[in-house]
Every structure is written in C-alpha cells, then in structure tokens.
Amino acid sequence: MPDADRAGPSTLVKAGDTHILVDAGRAVVMRMAGAGSMPGILAAVLVTHLHSDHVCALNDVITTHWVFTQGHATLPIYGPVGTAQFVERQIAALEADIGYRLEHHEALTVGPQVKVTELEPGDEFTVNDVRVSTAATEHSPARPTIGFRLEHEGSVAALVGDTVPCAGVDTLAAGAGAYVQTVIRRDLVKAIPNETFQDILDYHSGVTDAAQTAARARVERLVLTHLVPPPTPDQYPEWIARAAKHFDGEIVIGGDLTTVTI
Ligand SMILES: [Zn+2]
Ligand SMILES: [Zn+2]
Predict the structure, then answer these.
(1) Topology of domain 11-253, per CATH?
(2) Residue 15: other Cβ atoms inside 10 A
(3) How confident is the model at residue 14 (pLDDT cuts 50, 70, 90)?
(4) In Å, how far are 12, 125, 203, 207, 229 from 2, measured between CA atoms?
(5) What integer best gives the mean pLDDT of the chain?
(6) Which residues, in sequence order, are CB contacts of 204 under 8 Å at separation 6+?
(7) Residues whose CB is less than 8 angstroms from the CB of residue 245 and which lie 6 or more positions away in sequence, other chains included
C-alpha cells in the first residue's frame, strides 16, 4: 500500500563486493542510494514475479544503470518465464528517452545493455561467487513465481517473494541465516471493508504462516517485509509478538533500509 515512509518491495544482498537486487519495487533506486549501492554496480537483479509492485521500478534500475555506466556494462536480470518480454517492453517504453540521450551524448553509442535469463524452478547459477538456487513458490494466479536461496562463504539468505507456505519455500529457507518473507496481517486485512482487498488473503503468507515456515525450516532469523497493512514503528512489537508465538529465533521487521548481517 502506498506509504510515505515505505518504498516498494526490494531487498539488496551484499556478498563481499557483489551487490544483488531482489525485486525492484517503487522507489528502489532511492533506497539503493540510502543503502550504499547504485544500479551501476549491481552484479544482478533477481525477479520473483511480475506483479507490478515488485517490478514497477525496474525501468529506473535499467535506465540508471545504463546512464551511469555510459553503456559500457550489461545488467544481468534473472526471473521467471515472462521476464524477457517484460524487460523488452520496458525498454520499448523508454524509446524516446533512449533516443534523446543517444543524440545528446556523443560518448553514449548504445542503448541499455541487459542480459535476461529466464529461470525454471530448480535452476541453479552463480553470480560472481554467490551461488543461487531457485524453487517454485505459490502465488496463484500470479504464475510462474520463484524464490531464491543465495549462498556465499557459508552464509545463506532465502528471499522468496509473495507466496503462501509451500514445499519450495521450505527447501529454499532450510537452515538459512535469514529467511526474508513478504507478509500480510490477516486479521487487519479482514477488517478492511474492501472486497478487492480481501482477495490478497488467499495468496500471501500471513505473519503466522511465515513464523511457522521459519520454525519448520529451522532458520536463524525471520525477516518480515512488504508489510500489509503498513505498520508504524510503535506497532512493530505486536507484529513480532504474533510471529514469536510460533518461532523462537530472531524476528526482524523490515522497515526501509533495515540491515541484517549474516
Ligand atoms: Zn505478488
Ligand atoms: Zn507483492
């Protein structure tokens, strides 16, 4: 939900010098600047699914990467089937801007350079020295959707996007140092008198779901992000208390620019 203090869903993973962005929600480039990163130094963008709240700022990531690298670097983007067409259309929508810049800057001779890799659940690959594995998540009718497990020097982060609890999430999160889960508060959403809004109940994890997954997967810490409806900091203890009923590890509320070190 639009909120003055919350950008859209995105998480930056820093593994040594390797910066990997998972999803590109509203205002992500501003938040990257706040987190000491920039699109131009990204080693990869990983996309969980093509819901607009997770990809609406991808055009900004692509354009900023292009302008700051002056077209000398390629931005690798990984996502489920459909990602290549989405990126192609984003670049097509930017056609006028690309034309203006190419005409104006003599040093700039090519448009945005991207390399899109579409993934099937179960695919594995590396980004520099970060090992990435994937699994199917369950967010129907948004499909396909995938989650990611990133491993670097013995540290593991699982970032699974929007999903209800499922085997794929359990696999990705198993023993992770941080399991990052997008969540809603079912009790609060149910109280909002809006029929369309009620529809989000059946394809997201609630706080209890996320905590139960965290316990089952024996993770070290649960990081709650994409909080709907967005809590104010004084409401954080209530969110944490609900999760703590089911999970006795560390519970972190992912307000913007929250940093977790594994
Ligand atoms: Zn979604
Ligand atoms: Zn979402």
Answers:
(1) Metallo-beta-lactamase; Chain A (3.60.15)
(2) 20
(3) very high
(4) 20, 34, 20, 20, 10
(5) 97
(6) 139, 162, 163, 164, 182, 183, 184, 228
(7) 208, 211
pLDDT in the model for residue 247? 98
Please give the share of the chain, as a percent, with pLDDT higher than 90: 94
CA atoms within 13 A on the CB side of 153: 7
The question of whether 53 is a catalytic residue gets the answer yes
According to DSSP, the β-strands at 146-152 and 221-228 are: unpaired
Q: How far is the CA of 73 from the centre of ligand 2 (A)?
A: 29
The helix-helix angle for 236-244 and 207-216 (nearest 10°) equals: 40
pLDDT of residue 197: 87
**Looking up tokens 């909002």, which residue turns up?**
192
Q: Which of 123, 128, 101 is nearest to 112 (CA)?
A: 101
Catalytic residue, chosen from 23, 53, 162, 209, is: 53
- β-strand pairing of 178-184 with 155-159: parallel
Residue with token string 């179960």:
122
| pTM attached to this predicted model | 0.97
Interval between CA 101 and ligand 2 midpoint (Å): 33
> Residue 51 C-alpha to ligand 2 middle, in angstroms?
6
What residues flank ion ligand 2 with Cβ within 5 A? 53, 162
Ligand 2 centroid – CA 25 distance (Å): 9
Residue 134's pLDDT band (boundaries 50, 70, 90)?
Answer: very high
